[in-house]
Amino acid sequence: MRMWLWGALLALTVAVAGGLVYSASNYTCPVTGEQLPCPACCPLNQAR
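The structure assignment produced for this chain is given below.
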């Protein structure tokens, strides 16, 4: 039972970390709606 709990905790940690990395790697531009690699790539942010 103890191994099952540790395995579940590890799987949850890996899933959360993977989701955070994935969401941080994509930026949706509010002007064009495109998926961009960084906020600076958006035309809205380049005008500043």
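Interim note for the steering committee: The first strand starts at residue 27 and ends at 28. Helices lie at 2-25, 43-46.
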